[in-house]
């Protein structure tokens, strides 16, 4: 870190409660960036939750179809197996 930057940051304001112009500008920039990051995080969280809901629904539909297929195959195998043993 540059020594001059340290001096700027540690310099006392002209009046209590006032920040030097450069520091005030930096604080405003950081505050804006933190706000933007927070908004982006909220949007990302919403997208992820939506995606997880869609994935859960798709998996439930796939599970239902797979179970139906297993039942159908099971019935066919048992019926065919039963027919062969009867002959």
Number of helices: 2
Overall pLDDT, averaged?
A: 83
Low-confidence stretches: none
Taking all Cα atoms into account, the compactness measure Rg is 33 Å
What characterizes the major β-sheet? none
Please give the domain count. Answer: 1
Record field, number of beta strands? 0
SSE order in H/E notation? HH
| Percentage of residues in DSSP E strands | under 5%
**Silhouette:** rod-shaped
End-to-end gap: 92 Å
> Which secondary-structure class do the elements indicate?
mainly alpha
**Helix content estimate:** over 70%
Task: Itemize the secondary structure elements and their pairings.
Elements: H1 3-10, H2 21-86
Q: Explain this structure to me?
A:
The protein is mainly alpha-helical. The chain has one domain. 85% of the residues lie in helices and 0% in strands. It is built from two helices and no strands. It has helices at residues 3-10, 21-86. The longest helix is centred in the middle third of the chain and has 66 residues, at 21-86. It is rod-shaped and about 95 Å long. The termini are far apart. The relative contact order is 0.04. The mean pLDDT is 83.
């Amino acid at each position: 870190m540059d020594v001059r930057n340290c001096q700027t940051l540690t310099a006392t304001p002209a009046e209590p409660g006032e920040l030097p112009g450069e520091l005030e500008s930096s604080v405003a920039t950081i505050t804006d960036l933190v706000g933007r990051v927070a908004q982006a995080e909220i949007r990302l969280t919403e997208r992820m939750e939506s995606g997880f809901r869609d994935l859960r629904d798709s998996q439930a539909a796939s599970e239902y179809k797979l179970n139906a297929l297993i039942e159908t195959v099971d019935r066919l195998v048992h019926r065919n197996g039963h027919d062969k043993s009867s002959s």
